[in-house]
Amino acid sequence: MNHTVPALESPISVPRWRSLLFVPSHVPRFVEAAHERGADGIILDLEDSVPQDQKGESRRQLCASVAKVGRRGASVLVRVNRGLRALAADLDAAVMAGVDALVLPKVDSAAWVAEIANAVSELERERNLAVGRIRFLALIETPAALQSLSAIASAHPRMVAMALGPEDFSASVGGAPELDLLLTPNLSVLFAARAAGLLPLGSIGSIGEFSDTGVIREAAAHARRLGFAGALAIHPAQVAILNKTFSPSPQELEWARRVLVAQKEATAQGRGAFALDGKMVDPPVIRRARDIIATDPGAELGV
Length: 303
What we know:
Strand content: 5-15%
Radius of gyration: 20 Å
Largest sheet: 8 strands, parallel
Shape: globular
CATH topology of the largest domain: TIM Barrel
CATH class of the largest domain: Alpha Beta
Helix content: 40-55%
CATH superfamily of the largest domain: Phosphoenolpyruvate-binding domains
Low-confidence stretches: 299-303
Number of strands: 10
Number of domains: 2
């Protein structure tokens, strides 16, 4: 297999995705309404939510679907299938202007990511698209993949995000999608993503929970405290909760601004650390303040 990493014409930047909403690509009413849901990104699904006998039509409609879901500026992603024949057909349909990223399911090796990246580059060149504009979000859904997380995260410059697929992962180990089972693999994905400079996405629990807003809110808040930047949603009811939870509160923003003002004054006085509100502020705290300002929802979302 050829694992050569080509030079990319389009610079890669890490997006700010607080919420990515899955939309079954074969259901017209869901596609039509997706742009109204407020998600930072829409994932047009060609995989699990689409019956086998409707995948072909979903691919044929994909160009129109991409235009519809991206009408209000949300990032447009397409989740492809894992099997070779279906994957080839998915890539042929999905590599087009307007698609910002591919969601790769059941990723278990860096070599697999590199093979898909090479195929996407070939299609981009053939279609006169900027090579590298389409990025990758890798879904980690098997215990075998945990052994290769670092390699997967750095497999190709197209990689911008990683997430654990809680339902598939739990099924693959014969368990239920509960905190005790999912905490360790979620943290492993978080650490690998952060080490490689990728966006870590995750929620500690079942992605299928959408009726109990309290459970959704607490799971998202837990994930944010751990260091995750956003999460995947399978129902529109989850989107607003994710957007709010993964955004800094007014109190956090005020604290961060005060830290940066105090830091400027301390620097002018030749001090690298200083006290604020009775607590020591040093470079790690300043970095946290800068990160909070950078995730201000008032800023334009990166795509």
